[in-house]
Design a protein that fits this description.
Blueprint: H1 15-43, H2 45-59
């Protein structure tokens, strides 16, 4: 797929391509972490409380 806009010279610029690369490197892991956290909290609420409790104990 070509990038979304053309530059003044009429050739394709890389703006759209760069945006897709940034999205692939930052957006997808964030979505994965959110989904994983949601699934854990839905199916394993005790595990979530255990993890949060151990983190609280480590902090003091």
């Amino acid at each position: 797929m070509p990038p979304t806009r053309t530059s003044g010279t009429g050739r394709w610029n890389d703006e759209g391509l760069v945006r897709r690369e940034v999205w692939a490197s930052y957006g997808l892991p964030v979505i994965f972490l959110i989904l994983a956290g949601t699934l854990v909290s839905l199916f394993f609420p005790d595990l979530l409380h255990l993890v949060l409790g151990s983190l609280g104990a480590l902090k003091g």
